[in-house]
Amino acid sequence: MTMTRYDEDIAAWSAEQAALLREARFDALDLEHIADEIEDVGRSERRELANRMAALLAHLLQWQYQPERQSNSWRRTIQEQRRALRYHLNQVPSLKPTLADAQWQGAIWADAVTKAIDETGMGGFPEDCPWTVDEILGDDFLPG
To answer: DSSP strand E in 22-139: where?
Structure first.
């Protein structure tokens, strides 16, 4: 088997590495890059959580600060984000403690405020998130 270099074609490299693992040819594995890719999986999952949470928070801000634009369609969008977040947390339960991390919450809130400003052109949003995680993820909660 001619080995593909990691930086030449990652798709071919990953297929080769998987085949080597299945063949128990451990001596031929590219362990350093395999470790990097495994770490990237975790980062990707954390990024997905952060992006979904920031999007949900931005929608909740818009809901509260633009009551004239509230609609059933917007309500469904909020519910869809909540379902997607809960599904993601069920698929990757090790991320649940992240929700309680104050530094993470602050960064996500800042992203959400930026999104809300970009989408509404408005300012004056709270400096800190005024809602609990239970409220944010709860189906019955809508601010304002």
So the answer is: none
pTM of the model: 0.85
Q: For residue 141, how many other CB atoms are within 10 A of its CB? A: 14
DSSP letters for 75-131: HHHHHHHHHHHHHHHHHSGGGGGGGG-HHHHHHHHHHHHHHHHHHH------SS--S
Q: CA-to-CA distance for 55 and 4, rounded, in angstroms? A: 39
Q: 63: closest CA among 49, 76, 53?
A: 76
**Cα end-to-end span (Å), the chain:** 63
Tokens standing for 70? 């509230």
Per-residue pLDDT tens over the stretch 60-97: 999 999 999 999 999 999 999 999 999 999 999 999 99
